[in-house]
Amino acid sequence: MLSRRDFLAGATAALATTLPVHLGHAANAGTGLNEVARRSGRIFGAAVRMDQVAAEPRLADAIASQCGMLTPEIHLKWNSIEYRKGQVWYQPVDALVKHARRQGQMIYGHTLIWEQGTPDWALHHLHHEKDWDFIAAHFERLLKRYRADIPVWDVVNEPIDTQNGSNGLRRNTFQRIFGSGYIEQALHTARHFAPEAKLMLNDYSFEYDNYVEADRRRAFLKLLEKLKAKGVPLDGVGIQAHLDLGKGPLRHQTIAPFLQAIADMGLEIYITELDVKERDYRATAAIRDQRVADEVARYLDIALDQRAVKGVTTWGLSDKHSWLKVERGDRVDRRRYGNPAPNRGLPYDVSMKPKLMYKALERSLGGSLS
Ligand code: XIL
Questions:
Q1: Which residue, 134, 184, 200, 235, has most beta carbons within 10 Å?
Q2: C-alpha to C-alpha distances, 4 to 31, 40, 181, 203, 266, nearest whole angstrom
Q3: Among 74, 161, 237, 242, which is best to mutate for testing ligand 1, by the most ligand atoms less than 8 A from CB?
Q4: Which mutation among 275, 315, 324, 346 tests ligand 1's pocket best, with the greatest number of atoms within 8 A of CB?
């Protein structure tokens, strides 16, 4: 066993390689959750939207005091960068970069390839032209422009699909046109334009004990093993960790060996999109918050036992902006499960009051590896 001191020395060195650009500043990024995480050599962050940060001083304050790392929730996606062909919109990313730099925060680059985040015109172009150079040009403009400011990138988002996929890989436009080798091609292309960046694959539903998620874990490990065996440039993985109170108990024997297998391949792990989907909205807010906090504590106590886990990001800070509220809320059977608006699966409520989930994060980030 490593002593805590040895671990901290190792973790600091690991972090220095992870965050070549902003480590010095991030160390001063205020108090709060990042400060707690930093004591065990980790980093805490949240997904943000610049328009929301600019409009809401209390959100901006919480982001400033809690986060050492920010993930643009939408601004780097192709359908934000170039929603209409030829109309390139860097402005929100530039603003975020400036904002983060002022506060000594690192930016986690999300994401270069994601079919759902690709504008229709670009998908049409790919279908007709079957043109990798077109994808490479998209990589080039982002990786070069943000070279000094974004040290880590989700190169491919959500490549796994064990239900309708081909050998466990999602049959998206990229896979159909370029074959399953599109993932390694994307990693090579990213490495070409970003020799120093950390290159990641990011995916979801690896947490629970059901056959779909068991298949997904197997497929993901198989993909990683293949990429490593071929020497493809891959530095780490993002585990989205959208937890779900309807999916049954989280088990140590499911999650720990999965993370260990990734660590054994020499890959870094970031928890990239942590939040909790509720299923039953009828209880009091206090009870619901306890359930959410317990789920987060249960997950992080397992995940943060793994040294390869270098950071934790929540998918937003406040319930007010949760994608679960916006995109899923309307599908709930209200007569049976109550009113889902809002889902209470983030650390702050809609009026920016910290909830029990905040405490759970603080305890798990602080208690880990000590
Ligand atoms: C979501 C954003 O939160 C939404 O605002 C947007 O409309 C769609 O994308 N997995 C991912 C994220 O990797 O990029 C998604 O973010 C949530 C699921």
A1: 200
A2: 22, 9, 41, 31, 21
A3: 74
A4: 315
| Ligand 1 neighbour 71 (Cβ under 6 A) | no
**CB of 73 sitting under 6 A from ligand 1:** yes
Evaluate if pTM is beyond 0.85.
Answer: yes
Spacing, Cα 73 to ligand 1 middle (Å): 7
The tokens describing 281, both together, are: 């909205």
What's the first-to-final CA gap in the chain, in angstroms?
A: 12
CB 348 within 8 A of CB 280: no
Give the closest residue to 37 by CA, choosing from 273, 361, 270, 296: 361
**Residue with structure tokens 């198989």?**
222
Residue nearest to atom 17 of ligand 1 (CA): 323
Would you say the CB of residue 323 lies under 6 angstroms from ligand 1?
yes
294: tokens are: 């317990």
What string of pLDDT tens digits covers the 370 residues of the chain? 333 333 333 333 333 333 333 333 444 444 699 999 999 999 999 999 999 999 999 999 999 999 999 999 999 999 999 999 999 999 999 999 999 999 999 999 999 999 999 999 999 999 999 999 999 999 999 999 999 999 999 999 999 999 999 999 999 999 999 999 999 999 999 999 999 999 999 999 999 999 999 999 999 999 999 999 999 999 999 999 999 999 999 999 999 999 999 999 999 999 999 999 999 999 999 999 999 999 999 999 999 999 999 999 999 999 999 999 755 556 677 777 777 779 999 999 999 999 999 999 999 999 865 4
**HEC readout, 29-70:** CCCCHHHHHHCCCCEEEEEECHHHHHHCHHHHHHHHHHCCEE
Burial 164-173 (b: 16+ CB within 10 A, else e): ebeebbbebb
Point out the ligand 1 atom lying closest to the alpha carbon of residue 315: 3
Omega prior to 111 cis, within 30 of 0? yes
Q: Kindly state if the Cβ of 74 falls inside 6 Å of ligand 1.
A: yes
How many angstroms does the Cα of residue 148 sit away from the middle of ligand 1? 25
The answer to whether 58 and 93 are in contact (CB under 8 A) is no
